[in-house]
Specification:
The protein is an alpha+beta fold. The chain is built from 13 helices and 11 strands. It has a domain at 1-27 and 112-146 and 151-188 and 367-404. Strands 1, 4, 5, 6, 7, 9 and 10 form a 7-stranded mixed β-sheet that branches. Strands 2-11 form a two-stranded antiparallel sheet. The longest helix is centred in the last third of the chain and has 68 residues, at 410-477. The protein is elongated, with a radius of gyration of 40 Å.
Length: 541
């Protein structure tokens, strides 16, 4: 609808501008959300996780980390350091802020638009015996605004030189016009639902970015903890290989001594020497693994200081098997279907697709606008008099309909069909993602059960290998065994010791993995972050 209105009331400009100001104040506001990532506030730390359990560990702010010297950290402190300093996280933190800028950008279409023009004009007049050239200033000022209802409002005040036919030059040369106009969409573009659809999509995109950030943070925390335990495993391997190397060297010395006195044949020397070389080789590899793991851990936590890569890392937490009673697997699956960030992102995308349907369905409608124009013009012999004079006035009233509809409307129909198919695809993808998540959680659950059993089994195997080595060593001293058998027993003991600590580390990592897969890792670690709320879809979606 288009309405143009002109009156001689001197209060009309004030009234018109007041109307536009009130309309602009009715716009939906921009919701500002926080992107805080860090330890929960004290009053929040007592909240239970979604499965009803207290958080397994709560991250508390560590004491100030020195910028030089050894970096001594627990798993919790390493996690917090990563949240504060990890450079990849610094990059990811900006994404929600960037995404939110599209909301005010979308709302800007409803902002009042101020217009002004100032110029100087010449108007030649040749009529009968009169010939003259008239010149003078021209000016216009106005404000326009588009409302979410599909209404366009505008107020314009202008003054210009007017050509006057049949009059001497200089008579009624100037005209000042005040007009108010409005246009209301009746079909395409009608109502707040379609006009706010793009803004609501921008808000959904901002929410999606928060869930993406939450997923990134969970992955980062999991990487920190897993790398922390890998570093502990690498250190323990060096200890085991160092001890085994010392044991192999003692065995070599004893073998050489017995060969010297004639108790053993010269052929026993090769087996003992080969075992020493094998232990030394394993120790070299273990030290290399430790150095690489240290680099990965330092990269993740990125502690302050100049000599980052040269800092020594001292682990204050030792890998021990925690006493945890697992809930039923269905409980973990239900929690994952509620808290997984990627699943909540998929649900938000479905909401976004529904808004796209609203937009494309609106495009199928013909354009039908009602318009009205009301205006008032004053004539005078000068620029100033045309504004203040109450004589020589004229009025204008215009109303009608504008209609527009492309034949076939194939572009709009194609966009709508594409939106419908995309919505159907998103629906199927959401179901597929839910199934994949359930498989992931169930598989991780089985891995935890296996890891628990492996911790017990490897501990028992290690004890038996110790007894086997003790027996084989005694037999060797009594001349009833060989260096090769003793070396094999030593090798089996080393393997069992590695398997034992590996089983504990695997169990700790399996717990971290299932918490990540079910989306509860931040809650269980007492960390606050965006994207905690579960997204609910209407039943008719």
């Amino acid at each position: 609808m288009s309405i143009a209105w002109s009156r001689s009331n001197k209060n009309l400009p004030l009234i018109s501008f007041s109307v536009l100001l009130c309309c602009s104040c009715a716009h939906p506001g921009v919701q500002v959300s926080q992107d805080y990532i860090g330890p929960k506030l004290p009053e929040d730390r007592e909240q239970r996780t979604e499965d009803g359990n207290q958080p397994s560990s709560v991250v508390r702010p560590p004491s100030s980390v020195p910028s030089e010297g050894p970096l001594r950290v627990t798993t919790e402190q390493a996690t917090l350091l990563a949240l504060e300093n990890n450079r990849s996280l610094v990059v990811e933190r900006l994404n929600p802020q960037i995404a939110r800028t599209f909301v005010p950008e979308g709302l800007s279409v409803f902002d009042p638009l101020l217009t002004a023009q100032l110029g100087y004009g010449w108007n030649g007049l040749a009529q009968g015996p009169f010939e003259a050239d008239r010149d003078g200033p021209t000016a216009s000022v106005g404000v326009q605004e588009f409302l979410p209802t599909g209404t366009s409002l505008g107020v314009t005040a202008s003054n210009a030189i007017l050509p006057v036919t049949g009059l001497p030059a200089g008579v009624d040369d100037f005209g000042s016009t005040l007009a108010f106009n409005a246009t209301q969409s009746l079909l395409r573009g009608f109502g707040t639902t379609v006009n706010l659809a793009s803004i609501n999509q921008a808000r959904i995109d901002a929410q999606i970015s928060q869930y993406e950030l939450r997923g990134f943070v969970q992955t980062l925390i999991a990487q920190v903890e897993e790398t922390y335990w890998d570093y502990a495993l690498a250190e323990r391997r060096i200890e085991i290989y160092t001890q085994s190397l010392a044991l192999a060297q003692r065995q070599l010395e004893e073998t050489l001594e017995r060969i010297k006195v004639g108790d053993l044949a010269q052929t026993e020397r090769s087996a003992a020497e080969a075992e020493v070389a094998l232990r030394r080789e394993a120790l070299i590899n273990a030290r290399s693994t430790l150095a690489k793991t240290k680099l990965a851990l330092l990269r993740l936590v990125n502690p302050p200081g100049a000599n980052l890569w040269d800092r020594e890392v001292v682990l204050a937490s030792l890998p021990t098997s925690p006493s945890i009673t697992l809930d039923e697997v269905e409980t973990h699956v239900a929690l994952a279907l509620q808290m997984r960030p990627d699943l909540n992102q998929a649900r938000l995308l479905r909401q976004r697709d529904e808004l796209e349907i609203v937009k494309t369905r609106n495009g199928l409608l013909p354009k039908l606008d009602l318009f009205v124009t009301l205006g008032h013009t004053r004539f005078a012999e000068s620029f100033g008099e045309s504004i203040t004079s109450t004589e020589n006035t004229g009025y204008e009233v215009l109303t009608g309909l504008n209609f527009e509809f492309p034949a076939g409307n194939r572009a709009a129909e194609s966009r709508h069909l594409r939106a419908v198919l995309t919505r159907q695809q998103a629906k199927e993808a959401l179901g597929n993602l839910s199934q994949l998540i359930e498989v992931d959680v169930r598989t991780a659950y089985l891995e935890i059960v296996r890891s628990q059993e492996q911790v017990v089994a490897t501990a028992a195997t290690r004890k038996l290998q110790e007894e086997k080595l003790r027996a084989e060593t005694e037999k060797f001293r009594l001349g009833k065994s060989t260096s090769l058998l003793v070396a094999q027993a030593q090798r089996d003991l080393v393997a069992s010791q590695i398997d034992e600590i590996q089983a504990v580390v695997n169990y700790l990592k399996a717990l971290v993995e299932i918490y990540r897969l079910e989306g509860s890792l931040l809650e269980r670690r007492g960390i606050a972050g965006p994207g905690r709320e579960s997204v609910k879809l209407p039943e008719d979606f």
